[in-house]
Design goal:
There is one protein chain. The chain is of the alpha/beta class. Helix content is 39%, strand content 16%. The chain contains eight helices and seven strands, in the order H-E-E-H-E-H-H-E-H-E-H-E-H-E-H. A seven-stranded mixed beta sheet has the order 1-7-6-2-5-3-4, with helices on both faces. Helix 1 (2-22) packs across helix 2 (48-56) and helix 6 (138-145) packs across helix 8. The protein starts with a helix and ends in a 7-residue tail after the last helix.
């Protein structure tokens, strides 16, 4: 039942909003993974980001696409927890450790181990529209643990203006998505984060957008 509800939600509602109401221009769609495990690593300005990333993938892979989300927000009540985990398919993670030895990335690692395609936001929380926040180390630590799993840099533009942080109403605004070449572990965390940032800057430049305005 949950799988059917998820298919209906994304096939009918989400795709209608993203493709018809807003409009979506995708560059280099052919670079997207055809199977998992894989990580789609995008900048984060809006709750629409997750919906757009999932809508990029074929419906046949929908059951494999799992967005990472903050547990304190998406599990804040029973209804939100059910909808987030059963329909959207989020992987809830804590923002802070409950104990010094807690592995906050363990649920994400379990999903990658099952062959899922994980949607991950290296900045952590949402930022201001078209502004890039400092990167957290999570994406580098995942790449280190799964050195053979490809990480796809994805630059999203316009979503923070279509549904800004703190707003509930959509503003019609054309959306751009640029898919980068897949990356794999470079051997050290700082080097990987630098390579990811360079890839994102290159995607922004390809769209002739100011570098993170």
């Amino acid at each position: 039942m949950n799988r059917v509800l998820r298919w209906l939600f994304f096939a009918i509602l989400v795709r209608s909003v993203v493709l018809l109401l807003l409009g979506l221009n995708v560059r280099h769609r052919e670079r997207l993974p055809g199977s998992g495990p894989a990580i789609l690593a995008a900048n984060h300005n809006s709750h629409l980001d997750t919906m757009v990333l999932i809508s990029l993938m074929p419906l046949s892979l929908l059951h494999r696409v799992r967005p990472v989300a903050a547990a304190d927000y998406f599990l804040r009540n029973r209804w939100m927890a059910w909808f987030s985990t059963r329909v959207i398919g989020v992987i809830p993670i804590r923002r802070q450790r409950a104990s010094p030895d807690e592995d906050l990335l363990a649920p994400v690692c379990e999903a990658l181990g099952r062959g899922d395609i994980v949607c991950f936001f290296p900045e952590g929380s949402r930022g201001e529209p078209e502004r890039f926040k400092p990167l957290k180390s999570g994406i580098a630590r995942l790449a280190e643990r799964f050195p053979d799993v490809p990480v796809y840099p994805i630059y999203l533009h316009g979503l923070g203006k279509a549904l800004p942080k703190g707003e509930a109403l959509l503003v019609p605004f054309f959306l751009d998505v640029f898919v980068g070449e897949p990356m794999t572990w470079t051997g050290d965390r700082d080097g990987f984060l630098g390579a990811y940032r360079a890839a994102m800057d290159a995607l922004a430049a390809e769209g002739h957008f100011p570098p993170w305005e």
